[in-house]
Write a structure and sequence with these properties.
InterPro entries: Homeodomain-like_sf, HTH_TetR, Tet_transcr_reg_TetR-rel_C_sf, TetR_C. This protein is mostly helical. It contains nine helices and no strands. The longest helix has 27 residues. The N and C termini lie far apart (55 Å).
Amino acid sequence: MNSIRLDKRDLILSKGSAVMTRRGYHGTGVLEIVQAAGIPKGSFYHYFASKEDFALQALAFIYRPRLARYAQAMSDPTLSPRARILAYYRDLLAHFARQDTPQYHCFIGSLSFEMSEMLPAIGAEVAAIQQASVDILRGCLEQAQAAGELPADEDCGNLATFISDAWQGVLARLKVGRNLQPLEAFVTRLERLLQA
């Protein structure tokens, strides 16, 4: 019974977050979420107290696995710390290059722009996810520094924040312009930035 309950909740989170990513928080009602999931409207309130609760749970549903994959990539023992970082972002560039028209729809980006000020709980969750990503990258940068791949006086926390913020900017440019130039420029600059 519990697995059925979790499966239905995951279905609602998966389908509903896809709708909310495209239409925004305000542009998505509970009706659109349940229609996307193919469930009765009453089922929504069995799993979620409100649309805000849904958005908060969707953030965790989407980004916990992504953070786990990022942490795994940033700790890959087969690569040096610098190589891990560069390989990760080169792989992302290759992913977007395989698309006919490069595009990116970001659930966390949409929610942060639209709702962080209006619903502080969503703003706090977005900030926590972004900080977790920065912390993972900072750890890898510190390993690179210890291995002599970065200068001894490099502020790894500041560098991790800068790279993360720059990447978010690249994704915003991709959403607007739908071309690879900002991603290519990011990877080129990152390669130069991560030199000892």
